[in-house]
Model the fold of this input.
Amino acid sequence: MQILWPTPSGESPAGALTDADLERIYDYPDQLDRPWVQVNFVASADGAVSVGEYSEGLSSPGDKRLFLLGRDLADVILVGAGTVTTEDYRGARPRPRRSRLGRTDFPPIAVVTNRCTIRPDSRLLTDTHVPPIVLTCAAAPEDRRGALADAGAEVVLAGEGSVDLRLALDALARRGLRRVDCEGGPHLFGGLLAEDLVDQLCLTVAPLLTGTGPSRIVAGPPVDVPRGLRLASVLHEDGFLMLRYRRGTGGSG
Done:
């Protein structure tokens, strides 16, 4: 994996990036006093978010390397219930790098679900080292909430008729979980965008044309105005582009 931009003093990109290089490029800001949300997606060159309903068909070894780096750098992994079910999520695996980076051994997975549709016997609850956090609302069926709590999940109410994402992120921050790594899906990304809660987008563009059918990386409510981003870095490997955008305009970093 090499960096295309920015390059030191306008020089040609150096050799292959080391793990230390990537940790420096992708690390979260220091001294966070609020939740800071990074969203990760992979898409085809013509904008598809999946192949055969799974994102795996668009990925690459380099993309997976950055995916795992995102988990290692984060305090918590945020994901929508649909993605948990479709991708058959389980708890995060042991990663020695986390202790070196000063993180806890295992980041919890926080699931956003309006109706507590996650099954109590899903691998998210049965194959994990730390309990998942279920971010739901008062309108979610009480029996489903109870079943997930009985299965070991920490059930957090954040809103009345639907999950209020600001309240949900505040609940994570109160637990010391400010570095938020969002892994989708499109509706959760859309909700975060609508509330202007996205600080960084890490987008891998796969050199594939999938044709019509698959959805975009964002779905749900429209935003009132487009959100300005600044291009922070461009990496490449085997024809895949790894783009990193941050909130705001102009500059890099």
